[in-house]
Amino acid sequence: MDDNELHLSPPAQMLPQRMESGGPYRLLHCSGLGDKEGVMQELEKGVEPNLVDYDKRTALHLAASEGCEEIVVLLLEKGADVNSTDRWGRTPLSDARNFGHENVCKILEAHDGYDPLGDSDTPCFMIGHGEVDMKDATLIGEGAYGEVYLVKWRGTEVAAKTIRASIASNPMVKNAFMKELALWQKLRHPNIVQFLGVLKQSDRLIFLTEYLRNGSLYDQLRKKGRLDPLTAVAYALDIARGMNYLHQHKPHSIIHRDLTPRNVLQDEAGHLKVTDFGLSKIAQQKDSYGYKMTGGTGSCTEYY
Ligand SMILES: Nc1ncnc2c1ncn2[C@@H]1O[C@H](COP(=O)(O)OP(=O)(O)OP(=O)(O)O)[C@@H](O)[C@H]1O
Protein backbone atom coordinates (compact mmCIF):
# COMPACT_ATOMS: atom_id res chain seq x y z
CA MET A 1 0.00 0.00 0.00
CA ASP A 2 1.26 3.45 -0.86
CA ASP A 3 2.18 5.38 2.26
CA ASN A 4 0.74 8.55 0.81
CA GLU A 5 -2.65 6.96 0.42
CA LEU A 6 -2.81 6.36 4.12
CA HIS A 7 -1.84 9.86 4.99
CA LEU A 8 -4.71 11.35 3.03
CA SER A 9 -7.20 12.72 5.50
CA PRO A 10 -10.71 11.36 5.15
CA PRO A 11 -13.44 13.99 4.70
CA ALA A 12 -14.02 15.88 7.95
CA GLN A 13 -17.64 14.73 8.13
CA MET A 14 -16.42 11.11 8.37
CA LEU A 15 -14.69 11.72 11.65
CA PRO A 16 -17.29 13.22 13.94
CA GLN A 17 -15.93 11.63 17.09
CA ARG A 18 -12.30 12.48 16.49
CA MET A 19 -10.46 15.34 18.07
CA GLU A 20 -7.96 17.64 16.46
CA SER A 21 -4.48 17.34 17.97
CA GLY A 22 -4.73 20.88 19.23
CA GLY A 23 -2.23 23.23 20.81
CA PRO A 24 1.33 23.73 19.70
CA TYR A 25 1.86 19.95 19.47
CA ARG A 26 -0.18 20.00 16.26
CA LEU A 27 3.10 21.02 14.60
CA LEU A 28 4.63 17.66 15.60
CA HIS A 29 1.49 15.74 14.63
CA CYS A 30 1.29 17.35 11.16
CA SER A 31 5.03 16.95 10.56
CA GLY A 32 4.85 13.19 11.15
CA LEU A 33 1.85 12.90 8.83
CA GLY A 34 3.44 14.93 6.02
CA ASP A 35 0.67 17.53 6.31
CA LYS A 36 2.43 20.55 4.79
CA GLU A 37 -0.55 22.86 5.10
CA GLY A 38 -0.94 22.00 8.78
CA VAL A 39 2.77 22.56 9.42
CA MET A 40 2.65 25.95 7.68
CA GLN A 41 -0.42 26.99 9.65
CA GLU A 42 1.31 26.17 12.94
CA LEU A 43 4.53 27.95 12.00
CA GLU A 44 2.55 30.99 10.83
CA LYS A 45 0.77 31.01 14.19
CA GLY A 46 4.22 31.42 15.73
CA VAL A 47 4.79 27.90 17.04
CA GLU A 48 8.50 27.43 17.70
CA PRO A 49 9.99 25.09 15.01
CA ASN A 50 12.18 23.44 17.65
CA LEU A 51 9.29 22.51 19.95
CA VAL A 52 9.92 19.08 21.53
CA ASP A 53 7.69 16.32 22.86
CA TYR A 54 8.38 14.40 26.08
CA ASP A 55 11.06 12.37 24.29
CA LYS A 56 12.71 15.61 23.16
CA ARG A 57 11.74 14.84 19.60
CA THR A 58 11.21 17.76 17.26
CA ALA A 59 9.02 18.16 14.20
CA LEU A 60 12.18 17.62 12.14
CA HIS A 61 12.80 14.23 13.84
CA LEU A 62 9.27 13.14 12.99
CA ALA A 63 9.34 14.39 9.40
CA ALA A 64 12.76 12.77 8.87
CA SER A 65 11.55 9.44 10.32
CA GLU A 66 8.59 9.47 7.95
CA GLY A 67 10.60 10.53 4.91
CA CYS A 68 8.53 13.71 4.45
CA GLU A 69 11.00 15.61 2.25
CA GLU A 70 8.88 18.73 1.75
CA ILE A 71 8.30 19.10 5.46
CA VAL A 72 12.00 18.60 6.20
CA VAL A 73 12.89 21.37 3.72
CA LEU A 74 10.19 23.65 5.11
CA LEU A 75 11.23 23.14 8.73
CA LEU A 76 14.90 23.76 7.92
CA GLU A 77 13.95 26.97 6.10
CA LYS A 78 12.01 28.06 9.17
CA GLY A 79 14.96 27.59 11.49
CA ALA A 80 14.61 24.00 12.77
CA ASP A 81 17.84 22.79 14.40
CA VAL A 82 19.23 20.13 12.04
CA ASN A 83 21.20 18.48 14.86
CA SER A 84 18.76 18.52 17.77
CA THR A 85 19.06 15.30 19.77
CA ASP A 86 16.19 13.39 21.32
CA ARG A 87 16.16 11.45 24.58
CA TRP A 88 18.10 8.62 22.92
CA GLY A 89 20.75 10.93 21.47
CA ARG A 90 19.32 10.61 17.97
CA THR A 91 19.36 13.43 15.44
CA PRO A 92 16.94 13.76 12.50
CA LEU A 93 19.70 12.27 10.32
CA SER A 94 19.91 9.22 12.62
CA ASP A 95 16.19 8.68 12.02
CA ALA A 96 16.29 9.27 8.27
CA ARG A 97 19.15 6.75 8.00
CA ASN A 98 17.41 4.28 10.23
CA PHE A 99 14.35 4.24 8.00
CA GLY A 100 16.28 4.37 4.73
CA HIS A 101 14.99 7.76 3.54
CA GLU A 102 17.93 8.55 1.29
CA ASN A 103 16.62 11.82 -0.12
CA VAL A 104 15.95 13.14 3.37
CA CYS A 105 19.50 12.08 4.38
CA LYS A 106 20.90 14.10 1.48
CA ILE A 107 18.88 17.19 2.44
CA LEU A 108 19.97 16.95 6.09
CA GLU A 109 23.63 16.33 5.18
CA ALA A 110 23.54 19.37 2.87
CA HIS A 111 22.51 21.37 5.96
CA ASP A 112 25.45 20.00 8.00
CA GLY A 113 23.37 17.33 9.67
CA TYR A 114 25.30 14.60 11.43
CA ASP A 115 24.47 11.23 12.93
CA PRO A 116 26.16 10.72 16.30
CA LEU A 117 25.13 7.06 16.37
CA GLY A 118 26.62 6.10 13.05
CA ASP A 119 25.74 2.52 12.36
CA SER A 120 25.92 1.39 15.97
CA ASP A 121 23.01 -0.54 17.43
CA THR A 122 21.27 1.39 20.19
CA PRO A 123 20.72 -0.66 23.33
CA CYS A 124 17.50 -0.32 25.28
CA PHE A 125 17.15 2.85 27.29
CA MET A 126 17.49 1.78 30.93
CA ILE A 127 15.44 3.44 33.66
CA GLY A 128 16.73 3.59 37.22
CA HIS A 129 14.77 1.46 39.66
CA GLY A 130 14.19 4.44 41.97
CA GLU A 131 12.50 6.43 39.22
CA VAL A 132 9.34 4.31 39.30
CA ASP A 133 7.61 3.31 42.50
CA MET A 134 6.11 -0.09 41.77
CA LYS A 135 4.51 -0.11 45.24
CA ASP A 136 2.13 2.66 44.11
CA ALA A 137 1.32 0.80 40.90
CA THR A 138 -2.32 0.17 39.92
CA LEU A 139 -3.03 -3.10 38.13
CA ILE A 140 -4.72 -2.39 34.76
CA GLY A 141 -4.58 -5.72 33.01
CA GLU A 142 -2.97 -9.09 32.61
CA GLY A 143 -1.70 -10.84 29.51
CA ALA A 144 0.22 -13.93 28.53
CA TYR A 145 3.58 -12.76 29.93
CA GLY A 146 2.56 -10.92 33.05
CA GLU A 147 0.65 -8.01 34.49
CA VAL A 148 0.35 -4.46 33.22
CA TYR A 149 0.38 -1.62 35.76
CA LEU A 150 -0.29 2.09 35.68
CA VAL A 151 2.71 3.83 37.28
CA LYS A 152 4.23 7.29 37.43
CA TRP A 153 7.58 7.93 35.81
CA ARG A 154 9.05 11.42 36.03
CA GLY A 155 5.59 12.73 36.89
CA THR A 156 3.91 11.15 33.88
CA GLU A 157 1.49 8.25 33.92
CA VAL A 158 2.92 5.34 31.94
CA ALA A 159 2.16 1.64 31.56
CA ALA A 160 4.62 -0.82 33.14
CA LYS A 161 4.49 -4.24 31.50
CA THR A 162 5.98 -6.99 33.60
CA ILE A 163 7.39 -10.24 32.30
CA ARG A 164 7.06 -12.96 34.91
CA ALA A 165 10.24 -13.93 36.72
CA SER A 166 9.63 -17.54 35.65
CA ILE A 167 10.11 -16.40 32.06
CA ALA A 168 12.58 -13.53 32.36
CA SER A 169 14.99 -15.30 34.71
CA ASN A 170 16.20 -17.38 31.76
CA PRO A 171 19.08 -15.28 30.35
CA MET A 172 18.43 -16.46 26.78
CA VAL A 173 14.79 -15.51 26.97
CA LYS A 174 15.63 -12.20 28.61
CA ASN A 175 18.15 -11.44 25.86
CA ALA A 176 15.59 -12.26 23.21
CA PHE A 177 13.12 -9.88 24.84
CA MET A 178 15.75 -7.15 25.11
CA LYS A 179 16.52 -7.47 21.40
CA GLU A 180 12.88 -7.12 20.48
CA LEU A 181 12.46 -4.19 22.85
CA ALA A 182 15.52 -2.48 21.34
CA LEU A 183 13.83 -2.75 17.96
CA TRP A 184 10.50 -1.47 19.33
CA GLN A 185 12.42 1.45 20.85
CA LYS A 186 13.33 2.62 17.34
CA LEU A 187 9.71 2.85 16.23
CA ARG A 188 7.95 6.17 16.30
CA HIS A 189 4.54 6.69 14.83
CA PRO A 190 1.29 8.26 16.03
CA ASN A 191 -0.46 4.91 15.58
CA ILE A 192 2.19 2.76 17.27
CA VAL A 193 2.35 2.53 21.07
CA GLN A 194 5.52 4.30 22.15
CA PHE A 195 8.12 2.24 23.96
CA LEU A 196 9.87 4.22 26.72
CA GLY A 197 12.51 2.04 28.35
CA VAL A 198 13.38 -0.94 30.52
CA LEU A 199 13.49 -0.84 34.32
CA LYS A 200 16.75 -1.99 35.83
CA GLN A 201 15.47 -4.97 37.75
CA SER A 202 17.18 -8.17 38.68
CA ASP A 203 14.58 -10.94 38.58
CA ARG A 204 11.61 -9.70 36.57
CA LEU A 205 11.77 -7.81 33.30
CA ILE A 206 9.69 -4.63 33.42
CA PHE A 207 9.40 -2.16 30.58
CA LEU A 208 7.50 1.08 30.20
CA THR A 209 5.33 2.19 27.34
CA GLU A 210 3.03 5.15 26.97
CA TYR A 211 -0.25 4.74 28.85
CA LEU A 212 -3.39 4.57 26.74
CA ARG A 213 -6.19 5.67 29.01
CA ASN A 214 -9.07 4.13 27.06
CA GLY A 215 -7.59 0.62 27.17
CA SER A 216 -7.89 -1.92 24.39
CA LEU A 217 -10.26 -1.98 21.45
CA TYR A 218 -11.26 -5.43 22.70
CA ASP A 219 -12.50 -3.95 26.01
CA GLN A 220 -14.32 -1.23 24.13
CA LEU A 221 -16.08 -3.58 21.76
CA ARG A 222 -17.11 -5.73 24.68
CA LYS A 223 -18.59 -2.74 26.50
CA LYS A 224 -20.17 -0.85 23.61
CA GLY A 225 -20.81 -3.59 21.08
CA ARG A 226 -20.99 -2.77 17.38
CA LEU A 227 -19.26 0.37 16.11
CA ASP A 228 -21.11 2.85 13.97
CA PRO A 229 -19.77 2.87 10.38
CA LEU A 230 -17.99 6.23 10.60
CA THR A 231 -16.16 5.24 13.77
CA ALA A 232 -15.26 1.90 12.20
CA VAL A 233 -13.72 3.69 9.20
CA ALA A 234 -11.79 6.09 11.44
CA TYR A 235 -10.48 3.17 13.51
CA ALA A 236 -9.55 1.18 10.40
CA LEU A 237 -7.54 4.13 9.10
CA ASP A 238 -5.65 4.48 12.38
CA ILE A 239 -4.77 0.79 12.41
CA ALA A 240 -3.84 0.78 8.71
CA ARG A 241 -1.50 3.75 9.24
CA GLY A 242 0.26 1.97 12.10
CA MET A 243 0.52 -1.29 10.17
CA ASN A 244 1.75 0.45 7.04
CA TYR A 245 4.49 2.07 9.09
CA LEU A 246 5.60 -1.36 10.35
CA HIS A 247 5.55 -2.78 6.83
CA GLN A 248 7.59 0.14 5.47
CA HIS A 249 10.23 -0.25 8.19
CA LYS A 250 13.80 -0.27 6.81
CA PRO A 251 15.95 -2.24 6.36
CA HIS A 252 13.46 -4.99 7.29
CA SER A 253 9.69 -4.92 7.29
CA ILE A 254 7.95 -5.72 10.52
CA ILE A 255 5.05 -8.09 10.10
CA HIS A 256 2.48 -8.08 12.91
CA ARG A 257 0.90 -11.50 12.68
CA ASP A 258 -1.36 -11.07 15.66
CA LEU A 259 -3.31 -7.96 14.96
CA THR A 260 -6.29 -8.40 17.23
CA PRO A 261 -8.48 -5.89 19.13
CA ARG A 262 -6.48 -6.82 22.27
CA ASN A 263 -3.34 -5.42 20.66
CA VAL A 264 -4.92 -2.15 19.65
CA LEU A 265 -5.14 0.51 22.36
CA GLN A 266 -6.93 3.84 22.40
CA ASP A 267 -5.74 7.17 23.75
CA GLU A 268 -7.89 9.82 25.36
CA ALA A 269 -8.31 11.70 22.09
CA GLY A 270 -9.78 8.59 20.47
CA HIS A 271 -6.72 7.66 18.37
CA LEU A 272 -5.91 3.96 18.07
CA LYS A 273 -2.38 2.60 18.39
CA VAL A 274 -1.01 -0.82 17.60
CA THR A 275 1.08 -2.60 20.23
CA ASP A 276 2.83 -5.84 21.14
CA PHE A 277 4.88 -6.79 18.13
CA GLY A 278 8.09 -8.69 18.43
CA LEU A 279 7.55 -10.06 21.91
CA SER A 280 5.37 -12.82 20.57
CA LYS A 281 8.17 -13.94 18.25
CA ILE A 282 9.80 -15.19 21.40
CA ALA A 283 6.74 -17.28 22.11
CA GLN A 284 7.29 -18.92 18.73
CA GLN A 285 10.69 -20.01 19.93
CA LYS A 286 9.36 -21.43 23.15
CA ASP A 287 10.46 -24.95 22.41
CA SER A 288 14.12 -24.01 22.15
CA TYR A 289 13.89 -22.19 25.48
CA GLY A 290 11.74 -24.82 27.07
CA TYR A 291 9.09 -22.27 28.01
CA LYS A 292 5.44 -22.33 27.21
CA MET A 293 4.24 -18.81 26.76
CA THR A 294 0.77 -19.22 25.44
CA GLY A 295 -1.58 -16.28 25.66
CA GLY A 296 -5.30 -16.08 25.18
CA THR A 297 -4.54 -14.56 21.82
CA GLY A 298 -1.79 -16.97 20.82
CA SER A 299 0.19 -14.06 19.48
CA CYS A 300 2.91 -14.46 16.91
CA THR A 301 4.76 -11.61 15.36
CA GLU A 302 7.75 -11.81 13.09
CA TYR A 303 10.44 -9.47 11.93
CA TYR A 304 11.75 -10.26 8.47
N1 LIG B 1 0.00 0.78 27.31
C1 LIG B 1 -1.16 0.45 27.88
N2 LIG B 1 -2.00 1.40 28.32
C2 LIG B 1 -3.19 1.07 28.90
N3 LIG B 1 -3.61 -0.18 29.09
C3 LIG B 1 -2.83 -1.18 28.67
C4 LIG B 1 -1.55 -0.93 28.05
N4 LIG B 1 -0.99 -2.12 27.72
C5 LIG B 1 -1.86 -3.05 28.12
N5 LIG B 1 -2.96 -2.51 28.69
C6 LIG B 1 -4.12 -3.21 29.27
O1 LIG B 1 -3.66 -4.39 29.87
C7 LIG B 1 -4.29 -5.53 29.28
C8 LIG B 1 -3.28 -6.67 29.21
O2 LIG B 1 -2.32 -6.33 28.22
P1 LIG B 1 -1.27 -7.37 27.64
O3 LIG B 1 -0.65 -6.71 26.45
O4 LIG B 1 -0.37 -7.84 28.71
O5 LIG B 1 -2.13 -8.61 27.23
P2 LIG B 1 -3.16 -8.83 26.06
O6 LIG B 1 -2.66 -8.17 24.81
O7 LIG B 1 -4.55 -8.44 26.52
O8 LIG B 1 -3.12 -10.41 25.90
P3 LIG B 1 -1.93 -11.33 25.36
O9 LIG B 1 -0.73 -11.11 26.20
O10 LIG B 1 -2.48 -12.71 25.52
O11 LIG B 1 -1.72 -10.92 23.93
C9 LIG B 1 -4.80 -5.04 27.92
O12 LIG B 1 -5.92 -5.76 27.50
C10 LIG B 1 -5.11 -3.59 28.19
O13 LIG B 1 -6.43 -3.45 28.69
Automatic annotation (TrEMBL):
Signal peptide: none annotated. Keywords: ANK repeat, ATP-binding, Kinase, Nucleotide-binding, Transferase. ATP binds at residue 161. InterPro entries: Ankyrin_rpt, Ankyrin_rpt-contain_sf, Kinase-like_dom_sf, Prot_kinase_dom, Protein_kinase_ATP_BS, Ser-Thr/Tyr_kinase_cat_dom, Ser/Thr_Kinases-Pseudokinases. Residues 1-20 are annotated as: Disordered. Gene3D superfamilies: Ankyrin repeat-containing domain (1.25.40.20), Transferase(Phosphotransferase) domain 1 (1.10.510.10). This is Protein kinase domain-containing protein.
